[in-house]
Specification:
UDP-N-acetylmuramoyl-L-alanine:D-glutamate ligase
Length: 210
């Protein structure tokens, strides 16, 4: 049964709209303490980039064989290119918008042995503006007839405002397209009318005020 479901993924077209992130891992060894400050000096042995946030959801669906459309907002920077180039071939990135006024979200982790020493975040708090919202909706309209489902992947970074979320949900309902949401508890009312939501236990309790 499970094998058949997985095999059927190659026939499915899904759009994922959400907060795209790039996870960077810098790994190495601590050999001494810096003479400049009481902090460890990490001798770097490896650096790698991994898709994070909604981009990780997209990557997992693509790994199952689905044909995935990627939607979200990134900066007009080198990290955006690294993120886009990291997607497999069965991911269509034409729904991604590039913005000049904010960076691509990057989370850089410095790891020595099995210990994470530090995390550096490149991000800015924002809410998507009306012009960007309209571009996303118009782009989505041009693909909606081909889609079997849409996933809204919310990490509370400002993309999935109530306005944009409701426009996407209404568009899906008008075209009989399933829309599933992975919400943040603080934003759960943004997604009224969705086909389903997928909070974990903690998120579900917080959403109910428990």
């Amino acid at each position: 049964m499970i094998r058949k479901l997985i095999e059927n993924f190659k026939n499915i077209k899904i759009a994922v709209i959400g907060d795209l992130m790039l996870d960077e891992y810098i790994m190495g060894k601590v050999e001494r303490i810096s003479p400049e400050a009481p902090v460890p000096v990490v001798k770097v042995t490896e650096e790698k980039f991994v898709l994070g946030g909604a981009a990780n959801v997209i990557n997992n669906l693509a790994a199952l064989g689905a044909n995935v459309y990627c939607g979200g907002l990134v900066g007009n920077d080198n990290n955006a290119e690294k993120l886009i180039n990291a997607f497999p071939k069965n991911v269509d990135c034409n729904l991604i918008l590039k913005a000049d006024n904010r960076p691509t979200i990057v989370k850089r982790r410095v790891i020595a042995g099995h210990q994470q020493l530090l995390r550096l975040d490149w991000e800015e708090e924002f809410s998507i503006n009306e012009e960007e919202e309209n571009i996303i909706i118009e782009n989505l309209k041009s693909h909606i007839k081909d889609l079997d489902a849409i996933i809204l992947s919310d990490y509370n970074k400002g993309l999935l405002t109530k306005s944009l979320s409701q426009k996407i949900i209404n568009l899906c309902r008008e075209n009989n397209v399933i829309v599933t949401v992975d919400p943040k508890p603080s934003n759960i009312t943004n997604f009224v009318g969705a086909s389903s939501i997928t909070p974990n236990k903690k998120e579900a309790l917080l959403s109910c005020g428990c």
